[in-house]
Amino acid sequence: MRSGTRTVRALDQLRRQISDWRAQGLRTALVPTMGSLHEGHLTLVRQGLRLADHVVVTIFINPKQFAPGEDLDRYPRDEKGDSRKLKQAGASLIFIPDLSLMYPEGFATTVSVAGPAKVKLEDKYRPHFFNGVATIVSKLFIQTGCDYAMFGEKDYQQLKVITRMARDLDITTAIIGVETVREPDGLAMSSRNTYLSTAERSVAPLLHQCLADTAGAILEGKAPARATASARRRLIRAGFKIDYFTARNAETLETIRSPNEPVRLLAAVWLGTTRLIDNIGV
Ligand code: PAF
Questions:
Q1: 271 C-alpha to center of ligand 1: Å?
Q2: Cα gap 115→118, rounded to integer Å
Q3: What is the CATH class of 6-178?
Q4: Choosing from 38, 41, 128, 208, which is the catalytic residue?
Q5: Does the beta carbon of 155 lie inside 6 Å of ligand 1?
Q6: pLDDT tens profile 68-84
Q7: Atom of ligand 1 nearest to the CA of 33
Q8: Catalytic residue flag (residue 41)
Q9: What is the distance in A from the centroid of ligand 1 to the CA of 240?
């Protein structure tokens, strides 16, 4: 049924291909990315292929989700390598729009999100981020009209924000969360891991270790506030700077108020000039 991987850059090519598939009764899954693909993205493609007949991968580094001074200019780019990996993973269509297609002259619309987008996690440190993500992801949903959209749990708050947005706006695309893919030493895969020096890379897995140990301590009855405080001390001793390392309600991402709530541990830390995020269920 699948026949090779095609790259398109124009909206009419994208729409024609997807509506041809729809006319044949075939289902599609969308994997939105900013490129520089790793095994985490390829897992989204493979999971998409379990649900749908064709996977559409978009590659667009979205300037609206970067603040001035963030890493937009140095964000890794590798279109050739990405295309090769996507062919191997079985993606059918790669959509690589340019800036003027996504943000034409005079672009004046922003999708503004609240709820899980306003819980003082990523939103506290990157206040522009979720409106930028929500705007581009809405556009991709409208452009592709895919049946499914795959998002990694590594960006757990992003997954919750998009799920809420899709529900609120009656978007018919089903939002599918996919488990974080890790290096053998536990470090969550991320395009930004390439920024780490050799020394930083060797201590980076401690983040996941601390999340796992904290989850274990909470399961054994330690209060989340005390368990996360000791993890923060341990990370600081190892040279990390911490934006947050906290226990939240796994669904709302609000602060935990009762012992029976589902708990998710979420963290954002710095090693040198590299910011790492990760999370784990308890
Ligand atoms: O998770 C990402 O890579 C981005 O935030 C996304 C969803 C592709 C939107 O630009």
A1: 22
A2: 6
A3: alpha beta
A4: 41
A5: yes
A6: 999 999 999 999 999 99
A7: 8
A8: yes
A9: 25
Q: Pocket of ligand 1, candidates 60, 95, 113, 137: which has the most ligand atoms within 8 Å of its Cβ, to mutate? A: 137
For the residues of 221-234, what is the DSSP string, one character each? T--HHHHHHHHHHH
Instruction: Return the ligand 1 atom nearest residue 133 CA.
Output: 9
Q: Is the CB of 44 under 6 A from ligand 1?
A: no
The Å distance, Cα 34 to ligand 1 centre, comes to 6
Q: Is the dihedral of CA 208, 155, 188, 181 positive or negative?
A: positive
Q: Is 253 left (phi over 0), alpha (psi -120 to 50) or beta?
A: left
Beta-carbon-side half-sphere exposure of residue 195 (alpha carbons within 13 Å) = 16
Indicate whether 167 pLDDT > 70.
yes
Dist. CA 209–CA 205, nearest whole Å? 6
Task: Give pLDDT, residue 33.
Answer: 98
Domain boundaries, the chain: 6-178, 191-281
Closest ligand 1 atom, residue 191 Cα? 3
Look at residue 2 in the predicted model and tell me its pLDDT. Answer: 62
For residue range 116-146, what is the model confidence (pLDDT) as tens digits?
A: 999 999 999 999 999 999 999 999 999 999 9
The whole-angstrom separation of Cα 106 and Cα 126 is 25
Give the per-residue pLDDT at 60.
98
> What pTM was computed for the model?
0.97
**pLDDT reading at 1 higher than 70:** no
191-281 has CATH 3.40.605.10 classification: no
Average pLDDT over residues 188-193: 96
Residue closest by Cα to atom 5 of ligand 1: 133
Confidence of residue 249 (pLDDT cuts 50, 70, 90): very high
Distance from Cα 158 to the centre of ligand 1, integer Å: 8
